[in-house]
Automatic annotation (TrEMBL):
GO terms for molecular function: ATP binding; sequence-specific DNA binding. InterPro entries: AAA+_ATPase, AAA_lid_NorR, CheY-like_superfamily, Homeodomain-like_sf, HTH_Fis, P-loop_NTPase, Sig_transdc_resp-reg_receiver, Sigma_54_int. The lineage of its organism: Bacteria, Pseudomonadati, Acidobacteriota, Terriglobia, Terriglobales. Pfam families: AAA_lid_14 (PF25601), HTH_8 (PF02954), Response_reg (PF00072), Sigma54_activat (PF00158). Residues 6-120 form the Response regulatory domain. This is Response regulator of zinc sigma-54-dependent two-component system. It comes from the Bacteria. Residues 145-374 form the Sigma-54 factor interaction domain.
Length: 470
């Protein structure tokens, strides 16, 4: 066979150990041996086997403990467990802990050979994927994220480092910098990938509903709770939950959230029963979390619980060198979305994009390019396809009253004047509600409530309470 896969065989019974090692070496694998879990751990560190075949019952450290330690180290070995006859529960336990497969003793050589061949094939595929991922990262891609600048490469490295584990991550950065995209990428690169990713925007949900939205409720637990409803935690079971705009969550709800995170147990509103949960929790905020803690908007203990790792997204103006590549990726998306055939952008447009400060960050770039793709349709985008007045001023930082003025005649009610101002500001931010709320000095929650009043219902793709980009 000539397979050069490295196989570590762990067995306390010397006779069996030697026999297995000879067998496996005879099939063309490189083998090493260990007499218990402790020795096996040392060998995995120094020799990096792709496959570990281990007995369960051993002195010092047994097979189950070894499995746990290996999965903590995240070296992704395929672990094949040897179990005593009739001890199927232990085998099931091992599979739950991430073992690749199990085989009963006395070992059937044909079966072991097949399992090893399959495990080795799977390892090859994983390695190829890893190489492709690394190549892509070197050229500036991580999942759907684009960025070859030093700042983005540092972010990518951090994402790759923390993605496979279960730790909480607090993602900070200005609005539109890609915080939600980071959360999705963390999920995509984690073993939770096949399970749901649920995002909930805490600012977009009225205070009275937020607890039921997050924790779920039983029928009749409050007025309006006509039927039992699963909350975000349950929807994200075994997957990942992003709590967006965490600083906007009411303080009382923060206390309940902290308890859920600490106990890993959940009780729906109005229920007496607690159930175990397995959800990885990520949080995002565009505020400075330390200021939010100092201002009493974010509980300090919750902040420390969520901020096990911090990923800070830089504003686009600090990594403008990524603008061409990000624009390219957006163009490809928009061609598909709007069935257009745009090939690229011309030099003048590119220099205009590079000269601008992008207060709305990548979201603003995305909206600008989308508009241009719709207008242009095919060939190359040119400066003509940019919005009127683009770049001559920053609509978001220094509003110029002339093009964005709101007409308010005497006799207009205060409510109506407010409505016009809110809608006009929203128009100037290309429907970016977070930016508009910032400009108006109101909370995002108030913005959403107002829009609901005006009959403009917030939409989002799979995001509960999302403000939507487009
Ligand atoms: N590095 C990137 N590469 C490609 N697209 C990006 C990148 N960063 C952000 N985007 C895109 O920009 C848009 C805004 O990103 P996202 O919604 O993740 O920002 P955010 O920081 O969560 O914003 P907010 O604070 O307003 O919720 C999305 O369409 C996202 O796909």
């Amino acid at each position: 066979m000539g397979n050069q896969e490295k196989v570590l065989i762990v067995e306390d019974e010397l006779h069996a150990l030697v026999g297995l090692a000879e067998l496996v070496t005879g099939w063309g694998y490189r083998t090493e041996t260990a007499r218990d879990g402790v020795e096996a751990l040392e060998k995995t560190q120094s020799w990096s086997p792709g496959i570990v075949v281990t007995d369960l019952k051993m002195p010092r450290m047994d097979g189950i403990e070894l499995l746990g330690k290996l999965s903590e180290l995240k070296q992704n070995q395929a672990v094949i467990v040897l179990t005593a006859q009739g001890n199927i529960q232990r085998a099931v336990e091992a599979m739950k802990l991430g073992a690749y497969d199990f085989i009963q003793k006395p070992v059937d050589a044909t079966r072991l050979r097949t399992i090893l061949a399959n495990a080795s094939r799977q390892r090859d595929t994983e390695r190829e994927l890893e190489i492709t991922r690394r190549k892509l990262r070197d050229t500036g891609f991580l999942g759907s994220m684009v960025g070859a600048s030093k700042k983005m490469q540092q972010t990518f490295a951090m994402i790759e480092r923390v993605a496979p584990s279960n730790v909480s991550v607090l993602i900070t950065g200005e609005s539109g910098t890609g915080k939600e995209l980071v959360a999705r990428t963390l999920h995509e690169l984690s073993p939770r990938k096949p399970k749901p990713f649920v995002a909930v925007n805490c600012a977009a949900i009225p205070e009275t509903l937020i607890e039921s939205e997050i924790f779920g409720h039983e029928r009749g637990s409050f007025t309006g709770a006509v039927e039992r409803r699963a909350g975000c935690f349950e929807l994200a079971e075994e997957g990942t939950l992003l709590l967006d705009e965490i600083g906007e969550m009411p303080i009382g709800t923060q206390a309940k959230l902290l308890r859920v995170l600490e106990d890993r147990k959940l009780r729906r509103l109005g229920s007496k029963i607690e159930s175990d949960i397995d959800v990885r929790v990520l949080a995002a905020t565009n505020k400075d979390p330390e200021h939010a803690v100092a201002a009493g908007e974010l509980r300090g203990d919750l902040y420390y619980r969520l901020n096990v790792f911090n990923i800070h997204m830089p504003p686009l103006r600090e990594h403008k060198e990524d603008i061409p590549a990000i624009t390219d990726a957006i163009l490809r998306d928009m061609n598909v979305k709007h069935e257009r055939h745009v090939n690229g952008i011309d030099d003048e447009m590119l220099s205009r994009l590079l000269a601008y400060d992008w207060p709305g960050n990548v979201r603003e770039l995305r909206n600008t390019v989308e508009r241009a793709v719709i207008l242009c349709g095919e060939g190359y985008l040119s400066a003509r396809d940019l919005p009127p007045g683009f770049g001559s001023r920053s609509v978001l930082t220094t509003p110029d009253p002339s093009p964005n003025a709101v007409q308010v005649e005497v006799g207009t009610t205060v409510d109506e004047a407010e409505r016009r101002l809110i809608l006009k500001t929203l128009e100037s931010t290309m429907n970016n509600k977070t930016r508009a709320a910032e400009i108006l000095g109101i909370s995002l929650k108030t913005m959403h409530n107002k829009l609901k009043e005006y009959g403009n219902v917030a939409s989002g793709n799979g995001t509960l309470g999302s403000e939507g980009d487009d």
